[in-house]
């Protein structure tokens, strides 16, 4: 019986496309990764997982592998990210509100192990808030983020960075990360606030909180845990063997970097002794594939 042909050459043997696929459960052959510090990623069960120095971080969503997490270095300027103790954190209230009640180690955090605090707010006709005055070495755009989970699902608190307030957050029983960004000066006021001036604010709110983070930029990077001083997560340095991309030992080539959200970016890569260094200024951080352009 002859081969089936539809006029499109479908009877020909198709060769696999050259390149790297990062949606597997480990680094492909020919890939090397270094990172001078541990780093967090989302595991298959939805919990945060801490990867050791130089270990690959495979990011998951809904149990499915999304790709390899590759990030530039980041600093968390909040000196105490997992609790609300002085001197970093303070509490106040006004116009009938009550100072928030903080219960340390009230529940497991988003990694299922480290302790998260419970925060209880009563706003009255005004506000109830926790805030940290954080020193900023380079004024400009910054992002304040925190992991939150409801004690009782429904509308809860808001986040505020300096004079920029986010909306009233609606929380459920799942740990989720929320953020707000603003341009800051030499100091930034990071606030968790229940305030009648923000639409939808309930009279009271009770939440679990973990992993407060202030960093440069307009979006949160993976968590950087601090315990008394600012801390840094080192950059991921990724290098590739040029041969699986169909490239030679030296020279340059155009590569397409594909990300978990379907976006991609083209870059000209330098090849030296058969190796390619992935650039640190890519527009995405969860790398799904690298292909010759």
Question: Secondary-structure blueprint of this entry?
Answer:
Layout: E1 20-21, E2 31-34, E3 39-42, E4 48-51, E5 58-61, E6 64-69, E7 74-76, E8 89-94, E9 98-108, E10 115-122, E11 127-135, E12 140-150, E13 154-155, E14 158-161, E15 164-165, E16 170-171, E17 176-184, E18 187-195, E19 204-216, E20 231-233, E21 237-241, E22 251-259, E23 264-272, E24 275-277, E25 286-292
Antiparallel strand pairs: 1-25, 2-21, 3-4, 5-6, 6-25, 7-20, 8-11, 9-10, 10-19, 11-18, 12-17, 12-19, 13-16, 14-15, 14-18, 21-24, 22-23, 22-25, 23-24
Query: Overall 3D geometry?
Result: elongated
Order of helices and strands: EEEEEEEEEEEEEEEEEEEEEEEEE
> What is the number of helices?
0
Strand content: over 45%
Major β-sheet profile:
9 strands, antiparallel
Mean pLDDT: 93
Terminal residue distance = 39 Å
What is the SS-derived class?
mainly beta
Q: Any idea what the radius of gyration is?
A: 23 Å
Helical residues, percent: under 10%
Low-confidence stretches: 1-15
Give me the count of strands.
25
Explain what this protein looks like in three dimensions.
Strands 1, 2, 5, 6, 21, 22, 23, 24 and 25 form a 9-stranded antiparallel sheet that branches. The chain has a 5-stranded antiparallel sheet with strand order 8-11-18-14-15, with no helix packed on it. The chain has a 5-stranded antiparallel sheet with strand order 9-10-19-12-17, with no helix packed on it. The two termini are 39 Å apart. The chain has strands at residues 20-21, 31-34, 39-42, 48-51, 58-61, 64-69, 74-76, 89-94, 98-108, 115-122, 127-135, 140-150, 154-155, 158-161, 164-165, 170-171, 176-184, 187-195, 204-216, 231-233, 237-241, 251-259, 264-272, 275-277, 286-292. With 293 residues, the protein is mainly β. The relative contact order is 0.20.
């Amino acid at each position: 019986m002859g081969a089936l042909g539809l006029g499109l050459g479908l009877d020909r043997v198709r060769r696999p496309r050259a390149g790297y696929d990062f949606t597997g459960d480990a680094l492909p052959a020919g890939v090397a990764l270094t990172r001078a510090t541990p780093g967090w990623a989302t595991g298959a069960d939805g919990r945060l997982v801490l990867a050791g120095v130089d270990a690959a971080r495979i990011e998951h969503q809904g149990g499915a592998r999304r790709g390899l997490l590759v990030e530039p270095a980041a600093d968390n300027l909040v000196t105490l990210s997992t609790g609300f103790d002085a001197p970093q954190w303070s509490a106040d209230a006004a116009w009938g509100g009550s100072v928030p009640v903080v219960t340390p180690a009230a529940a497991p955090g988003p990694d299922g192990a480290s302790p998260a605090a419970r925060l209880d707010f009563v706003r009255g006709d005004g506000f109830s808030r926790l805030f940290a005055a954080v020193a900023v070495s380079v004024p400009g755009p910054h992002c304040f983020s925190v992991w939150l989970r409801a004690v009782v699902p429904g509308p809860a608190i808001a986040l505020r960075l300096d004079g920029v307030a986010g909306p009233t957050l609606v929380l459920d029983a799942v740990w989720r990360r929320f953020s707000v960004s603003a341009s800051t000066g030499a100091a930034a006021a990071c606030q968790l606030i229940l305030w009648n001036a923000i639409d939808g604010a309930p009279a009271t709110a009770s939440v679990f909180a973990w992993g407060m983070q202030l960093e440069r930029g307009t979006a949160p990077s993976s968590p950087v845990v601090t315990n008394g001083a600012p801390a840094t997560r080192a950059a991921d340095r990724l290098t590739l063997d040029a041969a699986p991309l169909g490239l030679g030992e030296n020279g340059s080539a155009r590569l397409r970097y594909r990300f978990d959200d379907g976006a991609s970016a083209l870059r000209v890569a330098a090849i030296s002794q058969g190796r390619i260094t992935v650039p640190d200024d890519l527009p995405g951080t969860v790398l799904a594939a690298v292909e010759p352009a």
